[in-house]
Write a structure and sequence with these properties.
3-stranded mixed β-sheet, 16% strand, globular
Length: 359
Amino acid sequence: MGPERIAVLGAGGFLGSHIAPALVAIGDAEIDAVDVQFDKLGPENARIHRIRARIDQPGVIDEVVRRCDTVLSLTALCNPALYNTKPLEVIDASYSDLVPLVKACAVHRKRLIHFSTCEVYGRTALDSAGRAMREMNEEETGFFLGPLERERWSYACAKQLLERVIWAYGRHEGLEFTIIRPFNVIGARMDFIAGVDGEGVPRVLAAFIGALLRGEELLLVDGGRQRRSFISTEDFVEAIAAVLKRRDACRGQVLNIGNPSNDISIRELAVTLSRAFAARFPGAAAARLRDVHAEEVYGPGYDDTAERVPDIAKARHLLDWEPRMSIAEAIPPIVDDYLARYGGLVTPIRSAAGMQGRQ
């Protein structure tokens, strides 16, 4: 990439903390990292300029957009536990607060790379005629969300509506955009451990590791039958770098970024994490799995998708990109990251004999 200025909104979050340093490493860009906290972003870098601010603060969006050439929009409340418990905040963070950003990019003729979600596809993959599809495709798969009282879809609906706003500004107002639909990215620094650096229910990977660290049961919502196609942060960031480099090819495009080869059930994820954890604590008691109803974990109004498998043919073609890291390769370094950050901060792991495990 050439010498340009890139704004990364949400640079202190899970994905932003991986993307911002990667952009510095692959080119000459100056990065304006915007967020309310930067604990995950890592060491200071002379070309990453940290701006501690909320994007809904008056003047912040206009100032950032005017100064930069390209804006990466990552801000959202991305946690299923919030979708039906704090839906108004979720809708504001994924839609209301970001409409001014879309307008500002259009007015100032700045490139917008917006991170949406695979959840816009909804409960299952259906084509425009309502026929089942194996994979979710950017052009052919419809959006099939649950009924109104299933507030779990507040996030997906807000994200979908913002996509339509971006598309309309592109078609009718000349906005240069690319929309990214991530499929279940996993990696170091994802979410939090409840009771240590956050409250509530984190996403499934952090929830499982938190339980393993404490020697607690791994709760499998509705038996863990749901299937997801997980992609490593390494493969994901490589794709985003290609989007930035291939500006003309990605203009006006919607791209699924995921790894269909890593299609596994949540129960399989729990077993894989447990094995990786056990390899680091040979004396620890075997992990215990327990099936629970969704409302026991997430409360009323929850709903879910049975399976999400991305069609990434377009990303392969436009980006000359291919995800390479398997689940078996991705999980061990993630476990190591959690152990390094939280190993001494939670209740010690119990051994099979009831003794304290190694930390």
